[in-house]
Amino acid sequence: MSSSPALSARGGKLAFLVVGLCWLAVLFDGLDMFIYGSVLPHLLESKTFGLTPDQAGDLGSYATFGMLVGALTAGTVADRIGRKQLMIGCVTLFSLASGICAVSGSVAVFGLGRTLAGVGLGGLLPTAISMVSDYARGGRVAITIGMLMTAHHAGGILSAYVAKWLVEPVGWRAAFWVCVLPLLFVPVLLKFLPESLSFLVAKGRGEEARALADRYEVELPAATGKKTAADRWDALLGLFRGGEWSQTLLYWLASFGGLLLVYGVATWLPTLMRGEGYALGSALTFVVVFNLGGIVGMLVAGRAADRFGAPRISAIWFALTAVGVYLLSIHMATGVTMVVVFLTGVFLNSAQTMIYATVSIRSTPDNRATAVGWTSGMGRFGAVFGPWLGGQLLAAGHGDWGFTAFALAGVSSMVFIGIAALRSARQPERSNDREELVAAH
Questions:
Q1: Per residue in 335-386, pLDDT tens?
Q2: Residue 47, SS3?
Q3: pLDDT for the residue 412
Q4: Count of C-beta atoms within a 10 Å radius of residue 146
Q5: Quick one: which H or E segment has residue 9?
Q6: pLDDT tens, position by position, 381-434
Q7: How many CA within 13 A on the CB side of residue 348?
Q8: Are 382 and 259 in contact (CB under 8 A)?
Q9: For residue 200, what pLDDT is reported?
Q10: N or C: which end of the chain has fewer CB within 10 A?
Q11: What pLDDT, in 10s, does the model give residues 127-156?
Q12: Contact at 8 Å (CB) between 36 and 60?
């Protein structure tokens, strides 16, 4: 069963509208997420606020901690106010928070801005994925979500160009002012983005749901029973019953290492490449190439997993990621480095997604959402730790160990997901599971 409760008959016009608006929102999400890493080399070289590498790592972790808070609270808030209103609130929050960064006069104020931005960023992505899942045309939920996820990496590409075009001639503050511009997108969301039909039905707003369905000639989703707190607690305990605790911990550890790697590299890639002797322009070009790889990886990983199995692909992908990240610690010809960065981007982000695929496949329908959600939540502690770790290594004068440390995180995830796959009983894979797992990234 798809996680979307909507029936198979979907309106193409409505699906296009919702996916298009959500794609743009996630594009802005990616821009705001990656902009800090793109301007970080300049902040360190210009000694803005007297910024040191360890403080820079802390600032990177503030945003990922905010994302942890946003992701964990998004579902509860959306159930109360609706997915549309939450998306609008998230875009507003991370845009205004970027304004705080742009006008900040101290590390403390800048850090506050990044933390608040992280809350908005963390809440937007799962909400946008829920929206497109609700409106995607029948049988195309997974591919629609895959397309949506490309927007996050497109935002990363945009962040590199914003930094290249504005930081040197205008200053780093201009880059954060660009990240305030998504506020202009809020009226568009208010006017054109429909509320989730599932939310309207669940809240008993039947007339409103029917009017929306009639307007776009789609069928209403079936009403579903709402889980109680006791149901959710029982689903969580089920992850540790009957010897399942070891599998659960292995998945959590793999997710921790995977997101440590994802956000550590996202934050420190330009700075570490500068440390390897590349010019700032080249270092930012690597961000573009890395995110192009991420787009390709998101589109091909699912097909590979369908053919060879998600656990196997996840382990292989992490091994290849570790090799690629380690090679970046070696100064090579620029063309060769570009190829390595691209391939690393292909494997890195989708390797983490395949962890969620593995958990989803190995879980029962009753506790699948809980298993994937908690695997993502535990992994986000790695997302907080990764940027901090890079800053500590640079502050201690061991910047050359940065790529090696991130490569070791990839190796650890490969080992944990590999052991978990070997220990688990073989279960039939379900072709429609992937729409739940991508939301957890």
A1: 899 999 999 999 998 888 888 878 877 777 666 667 777 888 888 899 999 9
A2: coil
A3: 95
A4: 22
A5: none
A6: 999 999 999 999 888 887 778 889 999 999 999 999 989 878 764 444 444 444
A7: 30
A8: yes
A9: 85
A10: N
A11: 888 788 777 766 566 677 778 888 989 999
A12: yes
Overall size of the chain counted in residues? 441
Tokens 């992490």 -> residue? 318
Q: Return the pLDDT at 235.
A: 67
Start-to-end Cα distance in the chain: 21
Which residues touch 207 (CB under 8 Å, ≥6 apart)? none
Q: How far apart are CA 286 and CA 335, in angstroms?
A: 11
Q: How many CB atoms lie within 10 A of CB 245?
A: 11
Phi-psi region of 340 (alpha: psi -120 to 50; beta: other; left: phi over 0): alpha
Average pLDDT, the chain: 84
C-alpha closest to that of 384 among 26, 107, 73, 71: 71
pLDDT digits (tens, 9 = 90+) for 51-85: 999 999 999 999 999 999 988 888 778 888 888 99
Both tokens of 213, joined, read 């369905």
CA angle 74, 77, 79 (to 5 degrees): 105
**What single-letter amino acid sits at 75?**
G
Residue 406 has phi, psi (to 5 degrees) of -70, -35
At residue 89's C-alpha, the angle toward residues 86 and 94, to 5°, is 125
CA 258 to chain centre: 12
Q: Cα(23)–Cα(265) distance, rounded to whole angstroms?
A: 24
147 C-beta neighbours (distance < 10 Å), count: 17
Mean pLDDT within 247-253: 90
Alpha helices in 309-367 (DSSP H): 310-327, 334-362
Residue-level pLDDT at 90: 96
- Beta-carbon contacts of 248 under 8 Å, excluding residues fewer than 6 positions away, are 239, 240, 371, 374
Q: Give the separation between CA 277 and CA 40, rounded to whole angstroms.
A: 16
Dihedral of CA 316/320/321/322: which sign?
A: positive
Q: What DSSP letter does each residue of 359-406 carry, written as one string?
A: HHHHS-TTTHHHHHHHHHHHHHHHHHHHHHHHHHHHHTT-GGGHHHHH
The 10 Å CB-count burial string (b at 16+, else e) for 350-383 is bbbbbbbbbbbbbbeeebbbbbbbbbbebbbbbb
pLDDT value, residue 55: 94
